Here is the input.
Amino acid sequence: MNKKVINELNNFLEGNFMAIHAYDQYIHEIEDTEIKQLLQKIQDSHKQHANIIARRIQDLGGVPANDVGLKGKMVEWMKNLTESTKGNDDILKDALVGEKRGIEISKELVKGDLDQESLELVQKILSHDEEHVEQLNRLLH
Here is the structure.
């Protein structure tokens, strides 16, 4: 059972790495100080979540992923092909879509495959991600 749990947690961890990398781009492109600080705060949250998940994987006897994985690299590569300089609202909308998509994919990914402790950990992290959605929405309105 641990192997399946570790694989699912590593997939979840790779998703957090994708978010961290995406926020690097957003932070680099944004000039508004208030928005930049929020994006940095959200990125820090994803970094903390990645550390928590990596520790859980180690506690289960596994080796945590340390990057976005092959699928994540393909997504990042394709995204970079289609990106051009964006305005604040475009960056916020992109971050919002990414957060929502990440939550949906993560919920599906871990459905039924985790032990109770890992599931509670992931659910707690996803609730923080939902707070990110609310924070981004507030800046858009």
Notes: The helical segments are 2-29, 33-59, 69-82, 88-109, 116-140.
